[in-house]
Design a protein that fits this description.
Number of helices: 11
Shape: globular
Number of strands: 3
Order of helices and strands: HEHHEHHHEHHHHH
Strand content: under 5%
Structural class: mainly alpha
Mean pLDDT: 83
Distance between the termini: 68 Å
Low-confidence stretches: 1-7
Strand order of the largest sheet: 2-1-3
């Protein structure tokens, strides 16, 4: 244990996205704007779903948790990134680095499972509408959400535990803008093969199982929709799934591209762009995707605003 502790670094240096001060200022302003939109969009979505009784359904129950996860894991990454863009000292302590990594893996893993739960919800609603109130009961919805958080916790705990057993003695410079798994694995001066296998199995299992659930759900949905005779009925049924399908495609596309490959194939520029997209941009896109393409959310927003204005006038 003494030898292992001697080789542990006390802090890391996050190199960020670029060395150019001009580009750093541009990125800072861009990321501030994106983060503000992320906070307003996701917090607004949670608030509207909470205040409007007509949105107290399983679909929007899952959507409120999706907004919470997006808001949370954006907050885990973006403030640290903004601070590093403004300062020349980009140090992050060993403990803070692994804490950031833990929460990011936890929240991202939970979102994977939650997206599959949302796909299952749409499958039951379209393929078995008569059984929907029974299958998607309050207890079932809470169990699915709890399972999503528990899976994220389990993945994160095992991953970070394995990472914490590694030694970092050659360099403490992380060529990334946050404490992600791949660039930290690349810093270790010990054999990372077992850790990589564990991470690959856990990440792969979570992605494959949740993605399989989504694919099977949408195959069933598509099969059911094609059996609907009126074209307007087909369009209405598919419109309820279009937003979720778009969000799933963007999220899983970048996650699979980034994580389901060996750490040795880590590419500084390419992987950083992908990381910016799923860690900073996607949390902003989700509330836009689910609100701009959803008449129920728009109508709920109007009802909440009218109720708020009406209550103020009565005072």
């Amino acid at each position: 244990m003494g030898t292992r502790n001697d080789t542990h670094v006390s802090d890391f240096i996050l190199m960020g996205l670029t060395d150019s001060e001009a580009i750093q200022r541009i990125l800072f302003m861009l990321f501030v704007l994106i983060y503000l939109m992320t906070v307003l969009g996701n917090a607004g979505m949670i608030l509207i779903i909470h205040l409007d009784l007509q949105l107290h359904t399983p679909m929007y129950f899952f959507l409120s948790h999706l907004s919470f996860l997006d808001l949370s894991y954006s907050t885990v990454i973006t403030p640290q990134t903004l601070g590093n863009l403004l300062t020349s000292t980009k140090y992050i302590s060993y403990m803070n680095c692994f804490t950031q990594m833990y929460f990011f893996v936890f929240l991202a893993g939970a979102e994977c499972c939650l997206l599959s739960s949302m796909a299952f919800d749409r499958r039951v609603a379209i393929c078995n509408p008569l059984h929907y109130p029974v299958v998607m009961s309050t207890r079932s919805c809470c169990s699915l959400v709890f399972g999503s958080y528990f899976t994220g916790f389990l993945d994160s705990f095992v991953n970070v535990f394995c990472m914490s057993r590694l030694d970092f003695c050659d360099s403490n410079v992380i060529h990334h803008f946050f404490c992600d798994l791949s660039p930290i694995l690349a810093l270790s001066c010990t054999d990372t093969q077992i850790t990589e296998i564990v991470i690959f199995i856990l990440a792969g299992s979570t992605l494959v199982v949740s993605l399989t659930t989504i694919v099977v759900s949408y195959v069933s949905i598509l099969s059911t929709i094609l059996k609907i005779t009126p074209t307007s009925g087909q369009q209405k049924a598919f419109s309820t799934c279009a937003s979720h399908l778009l969000g799933v495609t963007i999220f899983y596309g970048t996650m699979i591209f980034t994580y389901l490959k060996p750490s040795k194939s880590y590419s500084l520029g390419r992987d950083q762009v992908a990381s910016v997209f799923y860690a900073i941009v996607i949390p902003m896109l989700n509330p836009l995707i689910y609100s701009l393409r959803n008449k129920e959310v728009k109508n709920a927003f109007i009802r909440v605003m009218q109720k708020t204005v009406g209550s103020r006038q009565l005072k």
